[in-house]
Specification:
single chain; PPP1R7 protein; repeat; nucleus; Leu-rich_rpt_4; two-stranded antiparallel ribbon; 14-stranded mixed beta sheet; Leu-rich_rpt_typical-subtyp; mainly beta
Length: 386
């Protein structure tokens, strides 16, 4: 066994853990599920992750130099050290950690039962990563009351339970498991980000008490109705891609929402968005939408993705003066005059229109798009000037 030891010399320099996400859009992926990129995961986390490729975002927060200062050989273990150990056995890893370790990774260890690992001694742990194991039950975490971030991504968990003592938890990820219900989260009143991607959840429920929640990720489940979100007054990002939703509804109270991703569903009409006055990014590709409408109050939109729908005309978007990206590829737009609707968007830099009749029947497609919208920097997947 060998051990890498890292430390941060000044506790005051600790930065909040930040997440960035990329949305899977045409040309990259299309299920509408977001993917997080962890800034501080320097272990053998080689996941490309669905939806993570080709992201233009870069990680933020403390610099790599600050995070990766190596402890001088033979030096004493500093308080609150971040320790990454690579052992074949999860129990051995735990035994080698100092009791005040605050960031613990037990990814891909073959853990089946948390009760066998001995986590109860790590009472100061703030971040606990248990991704890619075979955990079947959430248990034996009662003593970890300092925990702020818990990752149980890609296990075999069927029920959310035994989390009531983790009152300081801010980030919870139980994605890629076997959950059927959202339940037993009432005590987690400080939760800010909840990830439940790729489960078997059929109803949005038991979330009304999350006054601090800013991000909710329910992509790739079995949800048919948008409901029970009224209490999420501080929600900023909502991801519902790759479900079975047929109607945009019950979103009126989410006045702070800036990102709505609802790609790959069964929606046929743009509606129910009038209360989202701060919405900046709307991703609703791969549905059955026939008309661009219902965006009168969404004046802050800078990204609009309506690709792979049944839209025949670019209309009712002329008032979106802050628009920077417009994805309308693979629809049924056939009239060049429709581009006049985008002329007022002086900040527009990216347009996707390929896969429409205007491209298929005109060899001068790119030149005409550029003439109509001279501010463009990118047309489809190609930068202007290339």
């Amino acid at each position: 066994m060998f051990t890498y030891q890292f430390y941060r010399p000044n506790q005051d320099t600790k930065q909040p853990k930040e997440w960035k996400m990329t949305l899977r859009k045409y040309g990259k992926a299309t299920s509408g599920v977001s993917q997080r990129v962890r800034r501080r995961n320097k272990m053998a986390d080689s996941q490309g992750g669905e939806g993570a490729q080709n992201s233009p975002d870069s990680d933020s927060g403390a610099s790599d130099q600050e995070e990766q200062r190596m402890l001088p050989g033979g030096g004493a273990q500093p308080a609150n050290a971040r320790v990454h150990t690579y052992a074949d056995d999860a129990e051995e890893r735990i035994r080698t950690l100092p009791a005040d370790a605050y960031d613990v990774d037990l990814n891909h260890c073959g853990i089946e039962a948390l009760s066998d690992v001995g986590l109860d001694r790590l009472t100061q742990v703030e971040t606990l990563c248990l991704r890619w194991n075979s955990i079947k039950k959430i248990e034996s975490l009662d003593q970890l009351t300092s925990l702020e971030e818990l990752e149980l991504y890609d296990n075999q968990i069927k029920q959310i339970e035994n989390l009531s003592t983790l009152v300081n938890l801010r980030i919870l990820d139980i994605s890629f498991n076997m959950l059927r219900k959202i339940e037993n989260l009432e005590a987690l009143t400080n939760l800010q980000k909840l990830f439940l991607i790729q489960n078997k959840i059929s109803h949005i429920e038991n979330l009304g008490h999350f006054k601090s929640l800013t991000m909710l990720e329910l992509g790739a489940n079995r949800i048919r109705i948008i409901e029970n979100l009224d209490g999420l007054e501080n929600l900023e990002q909502l991801y519902l891609g790759k479900n079975k939703i047929t109607k945009l509804q019950n979103l009126e109270k989410l006045s702070k929402l800036t990102v709505l991703s609802i790609q790959s569903n069964r929606i046929t009409k743009l509606e129910g968005l009038s209360g989202l006055v701060n919405l900046k990014q709307l991703y609703i590709s791969h549905n059955g939408i026939q008309k661009l409408e219902g965006l009168e109050n969404n004046l802050q939109l800078d990204t609009l993705d309506v690709a792979n729908n049944l839209i025949q005309k670019i209309e009712n978007v002329g008032h979106l003066v802050h628009l920077e990206e417009f994805w309308c590829n693979h629809n049924q737009v056939s009239d060049w005059k429709d581009l006049d609707e985008l002329a007022g968007a002086k900040q527009l830099v990216t347009v996707y229109l390929e896969g429409n009749p205007i491209q298929a029947k005109d060899s001068n497609y790119r030149r005409k798009v550029k003439l109509a919208l001279p501010c463009l920097q990118q047309i489809d997947a190609t930068l202007c000037g290339q």
